[in-house]
Write a structure and sequence with these properties.
41% of the residues lie in helices and 22% in strands. By secondary structure, it is α+β, with helices and mostly antiparallel strands. It is rod-shaped and about 80 Å long.
């Protein structure tokens, strides 16, 4: 028994509903739930025998209405838990190189406020142990630094 246009429309809306709902379940970022609601409305219209233009209009209208009405509220109440890591406080701080920084070999470390960080040179040049540096930026768990002064000798203790 071949499918008629009405059956195909119902199948298409059902597949779209499942894809949008599945996409939302995977992303959990309020990205496609609006379209799942629109596909559900269009599927209901198809089941009731509505014309294709009514189905498409319902899909677009319900999707846009849900997006416009619910998304601002959901973002405000579901995404207000931003936790600062304080890692950005080390940007601009002075540090002491504790392991030669060599970008080519991917090694180097600095101590900043009592904590050791992996370090890389901003200009790709090597920086020897004992050099005072300034932290310019953070990428992941690495700080990018530039030298401030010549290496400090072992006879000059400083609390880092």
């Amino acid at each position: 028994m071949p499918f008629d246009a009405g059956s195909i429309q119902k199948i298409v809306w059902l597949v779209l509903l499942l894809l949008f709902a599945g996409g939302e379940a995977v992303s959990v970022g309020l990205t496609s739930i609006w379209f799942a609601a629109g596909a559900l409305a269009a599927l209901i219209a198809a089941l009731l025998g509505g014309a294709l233009w009514i189905q498409i209009t319902l899909f677009l209208a319900v999707s846009l209405l849900c997006l416009a009405a619910v998304r601002p509220l959901a973002k405000r109440y579901l995404n207000d838990k931003v936790e600062a890591t304080n890692a950005d406080r080390v940007i601009g701080a002075e540090a002491k190189v504790t392991e030669d920084i060599d970008n080519i070999h991917g090694k180097g470390a600095v101590i900043i406020r009592g904590m050791t960080w992996s370090a890389r040179s901003q200009d790709d040049g090597p920086i020897p142990t004992g050099t005072l540096v300034r932290v310019l930026r953070i990428e992941g768990v690495k700080v990018f630094v530039e030298p401030l002064a010549a290496p400090i000798s072992a006879a000059e203790p400083k609390d880092w």
